[in-house]
């Protein structure tokens, strides 16, 4: 058993983490499930070494989605109106920030990874055994549905 303490910029919360609920995805990204006794905090988290690594992960996720899904799936996810606007060089896009092209939208996630996730949390403290399991010391966490 280990622990992690998250901060959402208003509150801090301490969670226990079973070692079996940790999955190291890469040397900068892991996913964990925490024991949570309230609905106001997440149970599933994506942990990253830093925000830059989170941004790279999100950009790569969407680029892989676009390259490997059917045109119909991509159109459904991004929206036909968005794709037409981008083809005409106009600003559009899913999410809160509008851009002029698919490349700009993909690059946007490098600086704004929270567009992909639900909530962002800073990691105040983390058990050393959890850091050893993950293979890196995360500084930022994002909730996943």
Explain what you see.
The chain is of the alpha+beta class and about 140 residues long. The chain has helices spanning about 50-70, 70-80, 80-85, 100-110, 130-135; strands at about 1-5, 10-15, 20-25, 30-35, 45-50, 120-125, 140-145. A hairpin with a 4-residue loop joins strand 1 (about 1-5) and strand 2 (about 10-15). The longest helix is centred in the middle third of the chain and has 18 residues, at about 50-70. The chain starts with a strand and ends with a strand. The mean pLDDT is about 90.
List its salient traits.
alpha+beta; 7 strands; 145 residues
Short description:
The protein is built from 5 helices and 7 strands; from the N terminus they run βββββααααβαβ. By secondary structure, the chain is of the alpha+beta class. It has 2 domains: 79 residues, no CATH class; 55 residues, no CATH class.
Enumerate how many helices there are, as a single number: 5
Order of the strands making up the biggest sheet: 2-1-6-7-5-4-3
| Overall geometric form | elongated
- Judged by helices, strands and strand pairing, the structural class is alpha+beta
Number of strands: 7
Order of helices and strands: EEEEEHHHHEHE
Ends distance: 24 Å
Query: What integer value in Å does the Rg equal?
Result: 17 Å
| Multimeric organization | single chain
Proportion of beta-strand residues: 15-25%
Question: Uncertain spans, ≥5 residues at pLDDT below 50?
Answer: none
Helix content: 25-40%
Summed over residues and divided by their number, the pLDDT gives a mean of: 90
Number of folding domains? Answer: 2
For the sheet with most strands, the description reads: 7 strands, antiparallel
């Amino acid at each position: 058993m280990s622990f992690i303490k998250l901060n959402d910029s208003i509150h801090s919360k301490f969670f226990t983490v079973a070692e079996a609920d940790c999955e190291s995805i890469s040397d900068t990204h892991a996913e964990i499930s925490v024991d949570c006794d309230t609905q106001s905090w997440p149970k599933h988290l994506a942990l990253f070494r830093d925000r830059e690594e989170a941004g790279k992960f999100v950009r790569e996720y969407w680029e892989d989605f676009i390259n490997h899904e059917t045109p119909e799936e991509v159109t459904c996810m991004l929206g036909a109106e968005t794709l037409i606007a981008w083809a005409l060089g106009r600003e559009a896009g899913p999410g809160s920030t509008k851009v002029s092209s698919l490349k700009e939208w993909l690059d946007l996630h490098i600086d704004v990874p929270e567009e992909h996730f639900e909530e962002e949390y800073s990691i105040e403290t983390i058990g050393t055994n959890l850091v050893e399991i993950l293979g890196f010391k995360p500084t930022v966490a994002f909730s996943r549905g």
